[in-house]
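This is your field. Pick holes in the following sequence-structure pair:
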Amino acid sequence: MKIRLITFYVFLIVCVFSSSVYATNGMNMIGWGARMSSMGGASLGMFGDTNLMNSNPAGITTISGQRIDAGLGLLIPSVSYKNALNDIDADTKVFPLPSIGYVKTPEDSPFSYGIGLYAQGGMGATYCDVHHNIFRSYDMNPLTQDAYVGQEYHSNIGYLKLSPTIAYQIMPQLSAGLALNVGYAMMEMKMPYSLPTSAMKGSVPGGGGMTFGDMFGVPMSQGGLGYEEVTAYVDMGEAVTAFGYGAKLGLQYRTTDKLIFGLSYTMKSSLDFSGDVSMDMTSQFGDAYERMVMGALQQAAQDPNNPSSQELQNAQQGVNQQLTGMGIDMQKGMQADYDVDIEFSWPQEAGFGTSYKPTDRLTIGADIRWINWKDSMKKFSLKLSGGANDNINAMMGTPDGKMTIEMPLNWDDQIVLALGAEYMATPLLAVRAGYNYGSNPVPAETVIPIFPAIVENHLTLGLGYNITENVTVDGAYELALSKELEPKDSIIANEYDGHISKLGENILHITASYEF
């Protein structure tokens, strides 16, 4: 029966992991299981819970005999995006967050061991119909009033950890634990991706050393196209995946039965994603074509706002000939498929915590954690290869179809404070509450609507009830208070200047525990 239960939950976690996972301390959940979550994530000095394998593995030595905790969280985010062209809410979804852990402490043994499987965290959002200046219904006629064509903005990053764990009771007051972390991560992304015009390094034939970047970036008054950036639509049609490895170390010191201190350290886990991606510059090129036609009319001393049909036709023919001379074949379009490799990592983390029982009924817990996002979230880099579109290769200066495009992230390190209390209202009923604060690691100049990991304050409540001597059910409610961020000058893309990203969350947890 025990093996069947564990197998079922492993299968459930793998099945739902394709769903987006929001997180509330950067990309991390504040806690795992209903008890830990209801106490604001305070856990490093806590006891008697298999979820400590994912928090402080030394704590599992406080479990006598065998214990299984099987939990499920339901996360309901509220996400919105507003700029000059949009005022839109992300799709409303309910994301399942399952977890399961098993621990055994053999009788008269100083060792405890176990294994757990946890949805560690992630982030993402989906907007279905977003307007963007470049994406319009081009017909190559600069006089036509082009309509906006809504684009899908979508991201989904999730990280699942398998944690085989061993802990040792060094002495009655001191224990140590080690959890190996075998991680599986997945990533999806669909969005306009902007680059500075200088990224177009291909030389214009007959241009006297001028690059396509010069051509696109020089102001229109000086004969260029007047862009500050060029934009493609990037689509990972299927999720890219990666495996990562690391470890978590923990110590617990019990000065008395009432006071426990805990330390933990989590290693950085490198994740190298690989898969397929498409890059489509059709809309960017359509907008550039219209500007070239307008420029041709002006050069011919014709009114670009009121040309005759013949004048417009002549201007378009002239532009087509000019593009042909640049090596641009209109029949080949502006879309290419690539192999993609993405270097990513889950950060290292260190924490200190304590729990104190001022009375037999009351337990108070407090943690402070440092999460090293600054090292792992410097930039988002895509290494592309295998691109076979001659037009794109000519403009980008990549005859071998290889290029690297980067998005700066510049996240800050995060300090997390977690406070929680548990009160035994009766011998069978526990009442819990907590607060969690995690400083926002995302700087305003790099926040974008599909990576809005910006919430800071969390309020938590929960109950636990002993149904029988061996079976306990715990429930929790977690509220991540809404927070918004508005960059004045985005370093990602012009469309994000002055936009507002907003995120809030509601999370429900339930955990069933069995001791034997």
Notes: Helices lie at 2-16, 34-38, 212-217, 282-299, 309-325, 373-376, 390-396. The chain has one domain: 2-461+479-515.
